[in-house]
Amino acid sequence: MIVVMKRGASPEQIQHMIERVEGLGLKAHPIYGTERTVIAAIGEKRDEHRQSLESGPGVSEVVPILAPYKVASREVRPESTVVRVGSLAVGNGIVGMIAGPCSVENYEQTVDTARAVKEAGATALRGGAFKPRTSPYSFQGLKEEGLKILAAARDETGLAVVTEVIATEDVDLVARYADVLQIGARNMQNYRLLEAAGGSGKPVLLKRGPSATMDELLLAAEYVLNAGNPNVMLCERGIRTFESHTRFTLPLASIPYLHERTHLPVVVDPSHGTGHASLVAPMASAAIAAGADGIIMEVHPDPEVAMSDGFQSLTFYQFKETMEVCRRVAEAMGRRIVPNEGG
Ligand code: PEP
Ligand code: MN
After folding, report:
1. How confident is the model at residue 189 (pLDDT cuts 50, 70, 90)?
2. Given 63, 95, 110, which residue is the final one in a domain?
3. pLDDT in the model for residue 46
4. 292-308: per-residue pLDDT in tens?
5. Read out DSSP for 283-332?
6. Same structural domain for residues 38 and 118?
7. Sign of torsion, CA 216 283 299 135?
8. Residue 11 scores a pLDDT above 90
9. Domain match, 18 and 108 both
10. Cα 184 to Cα 79, 133, 152, 160, 190, distances in angstroms
11. How far apart are CA 159 and CA 145, in angstroms?
């Protein structure tokens, strides 16, 4: 249920209703909007308390939440969420551009890439230190050494660091170095990991599982939100279909669909979504045209020798050209690619 407070309801009335909701054994999620405050009452119990809550002081109405996800729903929070961390801002007209190597391989490769993408206008650095690889024989990442290299690249460039965490027991370690915790496609439904990431205090970039529906993605986000972390970015990174001309199939309709249903920002990954460097720029700009709040792309100083995903990684020059197209499309759509103010 959503307890919609009247315009001008006092802080005491809001607090009173939070306590009433909690007294019913429900979790109270107050959302302080510019117009009015609403309190999402989350729990298994259905609408049985609706009438008694409606008579509370300062309450305008109590309405059921129709979507299966609650805190992520636009019904609960009509205003779009903007995630801001360090140099990165994503959402509500600001497009974040996250770029960097698939894997952190060494200091020089990562810092050179960070400098090049910053120069071209990227607003955050990506790079995997813990790599979830399909084969156990593939490069698994530099782990803590990789995190230290990412932190050094942030010191050099000022770019916020987005990096993946693949296990619950690594969340504290990764959160010590990262600005944003990436939950990868393979882990989208690892609920303990989602809760741990939610409790870390760091913003989360949640990638869609290649076989997950939109409802499943939103319910996965709900685990992070319910852990008290409002800073979740959803990431469309392509799904598995019968089609084999691209690594995955990148459904850009996810972007407007998600915007209708959730206030959370939507980031698109055209690198994993296509698996071909030549398809990244067109799909990045198409994603921005369709309303994406951010793009995450793989960039490598020499893709041919990359330890992972070289075939879909852009060279520095290709990244610069991609940024130029994206900037023009963003401008045409009335949005801006800018770093976080004061970040
Ligand atoms: C990655 O970002 O390098 C990655 C492994 O992505 P995904 O989880 O989308 O496959
Ligand atoms: Mn990759």
Report:
1. very high
2. 63
3. 66
4. 999 999 999 999 999 99
5. HHHHHHHTT-SEEEEEB-SSGGG-SS-GGGPBPHHHHHHHHHHHHHHHHH
6. no
7. positive
8. yes
9. no
10. 27, 11, 23, 18, 10
11. 18
What domain range is 285 assigned to? 83-332
141 and 247, same structural domain?
yes
- Residue 245 falls within a domain, yes or no? yes
Question: How many structural domains comprise the chain?
Answer: 2
**330: its two tokens:** 């963003």
Do 152 and 110 belong to one domain?
yes
Ligand found nearest the CA of 311: 2
Whether residue 5 has pLDDT greater than 80? yes
Q: Do 95 and 208 lie in a common domain?
A: yes
Q: How far is the CA of 272 from the centre of ligand 2 (A)?
A: 6
**Residue 184 C-alpha to ligand 2 middle, in angstroms?**
10
Per-chain mean pLDDT for the chain: 96
Q: Which residues line ligand 1 (CB under 6 A)?
A: 102, 128, 132, 184-186, 207, 237, 269, 272
245-292 pLDDT tens trace: 999 999 999 999 999 999 999 999 999 999 999 999 999 999 999 999
**Which of these, 97, 105, 101, lies nearest to 315 by C-alpha position?**
101
9 within a domain of the structure (yes/no): yes
Q: In 3D, which of 296, 339, 298, 83 has the Cα closest to residue 207? A: 296
Task: Please tell me the distance between residue 259's alpha carbon and the centre of ligand 1 in angstroms.
Answer: 22
